[in-house]
Amino acid sequence: MKKSIFQITTRTVVTIGIGAALYGATSFIGIPVGPDTSLRPSIALLAIFGALFGPLVALMAGLIGHVLNDLLTSGTVWWGWALGSGITAAFMGLIYVSKGFDPLNGLYTRKHIGLFVVYGIVGLALSLLFSGWFDIAFMGEPLTKEITQVTAAFISNVIVFLVLGVPAVIGYAKRNAKVSNLSVNK
Q1: 100-124 burial, b for 16+ CB within 10 Å, e for fewer?
Q2: pTM of the prediction?
Q3: CA 35 to CA 62: how far, in whole Å?
């Protein structure tokens, strides 16, 4: 049985820490696709942590991981984008609360995967719109730059989510499935 998404335990805190460290340490790996934007495989980690541990763990791992990456790579935190990573991860984590979805025990349906894809894409769209708006409203970034940046980030993040994140969660669930073709002879 899955734990409540609001139950904060030592395991939850450790999971957030591991998720944040992994996301922060791998976020600098990417292929440039626009101004200050790259195709980053680390987006798949947000999908994995969201599906396996829920929206709260994913939100905190995405937010803290992005802050760590910003501090390590530039020394300046872009709060709109850091919050955007947390929002993306939280949306991806909504699948965790779906009835019957339990990849730890190999339980998922096509409907779950469809919901996961919808939650992820909606989360990416909303978080990137928020990040772009934040940069314009509070950081003084030009609108044309933000349109280009948000569009490039959305396309590249959706690709990573669909090509790496979703298959990783499905693979994990399949690996943990209790069903086999073996039978017990009596």
Answers
A1: ebbbeeeebeeebbebbbebbbebb
A2: 0.91
A3: 21
